[in-house]
Automatic annotation (TrEMBL):
Protein name per the record: ATP-dependent DNA helicase PIF1
Superkingdom per UniProt: Eukaryota
A single GO BP: telomere maintenance
AAA+ ATPase domain segment(s): 227-376
Record organism: Chironomus riparius
UniProt keyword annotations, A-Z: ATP-binding, DNA damage, DNA recombination, DNA repair, DNA-binding, Helicase, Hydrolase, Isomerase, Mitochondrion, Nucleotide-binding, Nucleus
Feature: compositional bias, Polar residues: 155-165
Cofactor names: Mg(2+)
Location, primary (coarse class): nucleus
Function (record text): DNA-dependent ATPase and 5'-3' DNA helicase required for the maintenance of both mitochondrial and nuclear genome stability.
Enzyme type, top EC level: isomerase
Region (Disordered): 154-191
The keyword Transmembrane is assigned to this record: no
Length: 673
């Protein structure tokens, strides 16, 4: 269990009876810990170097956590008449801190049930009359017994959250008669009977354990990121790159952290913006001079200067020239000659998957450069080696558990197909993989084909159609939202059509992004979907938020569904499909067949209609890169240079044996086995 202390910008405000602030203390770089005194009472301590600490007793508190994912929360102390505001805290640390408070208070409540009031008063009296100074110690780590107890209390409370009609009516009458304003939504109030309090706080008690579920190779990458290194990590499909990236994001304070991806949909999945949006230089069609002028616009230049850590997902779909252009612009705008202007880089992607799409117009910075001269992949960028000083590869696969299927995928990933593999894949064409009325989702190589198939299948249904139009925060930027979000502005559905869920709604019930089902009916105007696992869900509008590089926040409310008869291979990247059908004779890009096949969980959930081994290939430049990349990692288990651990002669032998450039040897490379 990680340390439950939390850091951030912490403000403590004391209020009088008129709710006016009488005192305020600001800890710009504060730390908050949970302590116990010598009579086992819980306190929080807020401290900062060269400042007097503040201790507050954890009793009669309300915790407000609406913006916890943004590193913000507040704790109101009824007895002290004060509120603690937490800002710019790493979301994962903040969540752990608040849940630790809940678990420890739950334990104390259970323990105190066996103690009478007289015993409590006697204990308190002895403590007050004692001449000893109060002793404070940090709380002990959470035990399994404490965690189980908190889970049971959360579950028992959640069963009581559906009030009777009479109680609803009484509350309605009380609300009408009361002149007091409605209290804000509370997360934990030990002494206040607040419905759904524990349920909202411990809605998924297993999240505490999930925060710890990094394997050794993932944890090594996280530690490298936290140490300030510029990190690139890769791995085949299903190795947990997205899971690890979300963990990394939650570990850093939100201020100074910029999250990007090469595509709008990928950016939406990790709560970021597109790299082009952050860069502010268009598609990279302009000269360096013009690009710098564009980036000096106030909102864009401010984004560059504020950025301390830049995370880029799907780096494999960013081309080398655009990477070099952004790097040069960042140095110029920030006035810093270090690589990327001193911004820490965390890059993630698999170059064996879909390559960059290069579209350049005449008259741009690359005019006169023919296609063979163009540097397509990001690792070919001039500044790649200067920018990256720690590289990793994830190897453990989580999506597929069948070793034979994993072996086939790994072989296809590098463009190698044996006759036995071809026979095995073609044999899936006879499989019946439909289940519970849900047919296999087709994957095709072109987006236009996917749209055409979906429209055709929808039109074939005889049931009435119902159109859902999204509510956008800015109607003038509807096209921007369309490019950034997986949900369309207008969605047409029918009873009986097959759909895919586009948002994680309920993990424990399997209602996750990518889950597929059939619309059984419309209830109160909203589609009721029965999923493959027989769970029914009424799809009501969900909110998507997009934050542009200039700070503008856009929102869209739309039913979180889309037609799922067919999806293009490009749009399937990152999804896990429980039942998928594909035709692989018309793939036109290196890595396209691999991306399509790796969407399946197993051979049993896969049906291949046609397969041509000649259409399976990996880009030769990617093969060369990974060969060198892996050789570096495997042959240099000790980071170089760290001094004193290897003689210079040994290092020279390794360099000459591998024929690796000296510039590469100056980078610390890690082994993950």
């Amino acid at each position: 269990m990680e340390d439950p202390a939390v850091v951030g910008c912490i403000t403590v405000e004391w209020l009088n009876s008129q709710a006016m602030t009488t005192k305020k203390v600001l800890y710009k770089s504060g730390m908050m810990k949970i302590l116990r005194n010598d009579i086992r009472e819980l306190f929080i301590e807020i401290s900062q170097d060269k400042m007097q600490s503040t201790k507050l007793k954890l009793k009669d508190i309300n915790v407000h956590k609406k913006f916890m994912a943004e590193g913000k929360a507040s704790i109101s102390f009824k007895n002290e008449k004060c509120t603690v505001f937490i800002n710019n805290s790493p979301p994962s640390s903040l969540m752990m801190f608040l849940k630790t408070i809940y678990i420890k208070l739950t334990k104390d409540q259970e323990d105190n049930k066996s103690i009478t009031k007289e015993q409590m008063h006697k204990k308190l009296r002895e403590h007050l009359l004692s001449e000893k100074c109060s002793q404070f110690d940090e709380i002990s780590p959470i035990t399994n017994a404490e965690l189980d107890r908190a889970k049971k209390q959360a579950i028992s409370k959640s069963t009581l959250t559906t009030p009777s009609p009479g109680s609803k009516k009484r509350r309605l009458i009380d609300a009408k008669q009361s002149d007091n304003p409605k209290a804000p939504k509370q997360l934990y109030a030990p002494k206040v009977k607040e419905e759904n309090t524990e349920k909202s706080f411990m809605a998924n008690p297993n999240e505490i354990a999930q925060l710890e579920r990094l394997n050794d190779e993932q944890n090594a990458i996280l530690q490298a990121c936290m140490s300030g290194r510029n990190v690139f990590f890769t791995g085949s499909a299903g190795t947990g790159k997205s899971f690890l990236l979300r963990k990394i994001i939650s570990t850093f304070p939100p201020q100074g952290l910029t999250i990007c991806a090469s595509t709008g949909v990928a950016a939406c999945l990790i709560g970021g913006v597109t790299l082009h949006s952050f860069a502010g230089i268009g598609a990279g069609d302009h000269s360096l001079k013009r690009s710098i002028e564009m980036a000096r616009r106030p909102a864009i230049s401010q984004a560059y200067r504020r950025c301390k850590i830049l995370i880029i997902d799907e780096i494999s779909m960013v081309d080398a020239d655009f990477f070099d252009l952004i790097e040069a612009v960042a140095r110029e705008v920030r006035g810093n000659d270090k690589p990327f202007g001193g911004i820490q880089l965390i890059l993630c992607g698999d170059f064996f998957q879909l390559p960059p799409v290069i579209k350049r117009q005449q008259g741009n910075a690359f005019e006169g450069m023919n296609q063979p001269q163009r540097k397509r992949f990001c690792f070919q960028a001039k500044q790649w080696q200067n920018c990256i000083n720690a590289s990793f590869e994830l190897r453990k696969i989580y999506r597929q558990s069948d070793p034979k299927f994993v072996e086939i995928l790994n072989s296809i990933r590098i463009g190698r197909v044996t006759p036995e593999m071809t026979e095995k894949l073609l044999s899936t064409g006879r499989q019946k993989i439909e289940f519970n009325g849900i047919i296999a989702t087709q994957l095709c190589s072109h987006t236009q084909d996917a749209d055409s198939i979906n429209k055709s299948r929808l039109a074939s249904l005889k049931t009435p159609e119902k159109m859902f139009e999204a509510t956008d925060s800015d109607s003038y930027l509807t096209n921007t939202l369309d490019s950034q979000l997986p949900v369309p502005h207008k969605l047409t559905l029918k009873e009986g059509c097959q759909v895919m869920l586009l948002k994680n709604v309920n993990l424990s019930n399997g209602l996750v992004n990518g889950a597929r089902g059939v619309i059984k009916k419309f209830s109160e105007g909203f589609p009721v979907v029965r999923f493959k696992n027989n769970v029914e869900y009424t799809a009501k509008p969900e909110k998507w938020t997009v934050k542009l590089a200039n700070g503008t926040v856009l929102q869209r409310k739309q039913v979180p569904l889309k037609l799922a008869y067919c999806i293009s291979i490009h749009k399937s990247q990152g999804l896990t499909l429980d039942c998928v059908e594909m035709s692989l004779s018309k793939v036109f890009e290196a890595g396209q067949a691999y991306v399509a096949l790796s969407r399946a969980q197993s051979m049993d959930s896969l049906r291949i209609l046609d397969f041509d081994a000649k259409q399976i290939w990996a880009d030769p430049q990617v093969l060369v890169f990974y060969k060198s990349f892996r050789r570096q990692i495997m042959d240099m288990p000790v980071m170089i240079p760290l001094g004193g651990q290897r003689k210079k002669q040994d290092v020279k032998k390794i360099v000459s044996g591998l024929k690796i450039a000296k510039s590469i040897m100056n980078k610390p490379l890690m082994t993950i086995n």
